[in-house]
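The following block was generated as part of the benchmark described in Methods. Ligand: LQXTBERG.
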Amino acid sequence: MTPGDLRAADFGAERGTWAVIAAAGRSSRAACEDGKPKQYRRLGGRPVISRTLAVFARHPAISGILVVIHPDDEELFADAVRQVDSPIPIRHVHGGASRQISCRRGLEALSAFAATPPRAVLIHDAARPFVSDTILDNVVTALEDGAAAALPVVAVSDTLKRGNASGTVVETVARDGLFAAQTPQGFDFTRILAAHRAAVAEEKDHFTDDCALAEWAGIAVTMVGGATGNIKLTTSEDLAMAERRVSAPCPDIRSGNGYDVHRLVAGDHVTLCGVNIPHNRRLDGHSDADVALHALTDALLATCGAGDIGTHFPPSDPQWKGAASFVFLQKAGEIVARNGGTILNVDVSLIAEAPKIGPHRDAMRSRLADILGISVDRCSVKATTNEKMGFIGREEGIAAIATANVSYGVLT
Ligand SMILES: Nc1ccn([C@@H]2O[C@H](COP(=O)(O)OP(=O)(O)OP(=O)(O)O)[C@@H](O)[C@H]2O)c(=O)n1
Ligand SMILES: C[C@](O)(CO)[C@H](O)COP(=O)(O)O
């Protein structure tokens, strides 16, 4: 057997867990124009196998990766490995004519070239790039808990039929207790190697996965959680679906928050959310001191990193003295729009002991909708007292907290 680039120094003194990645297949069921086997086709610009390897390379339980490749794929493999940032060794050996042979060659290579053979091995299809950390965790945990073999599965959810060669249903197969087997399949290294060797000795070469071989050899297989997303790319349709999956647009929705507080002094009304409310005090400030609109202005500016209200309307600038604060909010809305944003909703919470906000809430929501040019159902105004505590409780001031959600299209 060829050693590939595996070397004794790849194995530490401790018996760790290695991954064997089966990648020597020819993809006969996935028609392909560029002649590349499916594991080297690009998904979102990156080879399938690079994505698969990256998941194992960054998992803390894995100490090394041995990839079983076809002799014709040396260049494709070297290019794919260059695209994986791996803190652990990624080595390769050559596989054989069936998956069973390829996996056995991987195990034999680990046995022959490791000074200290691994304690456990996870055998995985290169053609399952959507394997997750969680599935690896499930398999590794089962092995640590004493399982000799661990198999990720998903319960079968379709009704199953057995059909004949002429396309007629022969029977409906009860799906109770049926599961679809996935990879990585985890094993006690010594036991799965012995099982593979026994299969050779007894000329058993029909196993489509290593757990089937383990079952045949009398090894108990523990089922753990797999995931429907962990599909094996088998056909061209699978590859097309996978491409759509990795290139699905991610909505660029951002939220911003804002806070403001102003002192109450002697007066006859307060202005909140642009609505004048009769009161025996007024809010003191450089402008009309509308805390609600100031907080909301900050929240909107935050969604595009455009600073805060003081950046655009400095209190030192005399033109804003006594200004109606709707101007600030309108301007913030324009800045958001210039940055490509569409306001989804805004939410203001007022914290005031008095005056009562409830009777004015609808007028405030309408005013916000007018200023921002959005519908009223996207504008929320709420209020609470401070239970007579602190400066708000003593009616020395009013505070406001605001949130804005803005869509900036999709992430590219
Ligand atoms: N002689 C083989 C056959 C398959 N595999 C690997 O086993 C995994 C699952 O096999 P499958 O989906 O059947 O891949 P192919 O054999 O390439 O596909 P096909 O059967 O359509 O030719 C794949 O990652 C494949 O590369 C392997 O290492 N050696
Ligand atoms: C190992 C496997 O992925 C388990 O589902 C599957 O059996 C391999 O695919 P194949 O099409 O049987 O080669």
